[in-house]
Amino acid sequence: MTVRYLWWRSCYDGALHAFPVAPGARLAHQHYRASCTHAAPPDLAADEPAASRCELCLLIIGELATPST
Fold it and tell me: pTM of the predicted model, to two decimals?
């Protein structure tokens, strides 16, 4: 099963965090927990893909780019 992630801005630190969304899930909660345990309400969805993303979330979901040697 593939997990999809939405990048939402946290109301605590202003960074974008990866919020897992299960296939077929409805977004009806008041707050969601990010991969790194930050929380954000769904009305703070980010529309800026180039904004600062949480490095811990990137590590957890495996999207942190490693420097080439």
Answer: 0.64
pLDDT tens string 55-69: 888 888 887 665 555
| 8 A C-beta contact, residue 18 and residue 56 | no
CB 39 within 8 A of CB 31: yes
Query: Is 67 part of a structural domain of the chain?
Result: no
Q: What is the DSSP letter of 45?
A: B
Q: How far apart are CA 55 and CA 25, in angstroms?
A: 25
Tokens of 30: 């008041």
Count: domains in the chain: 1
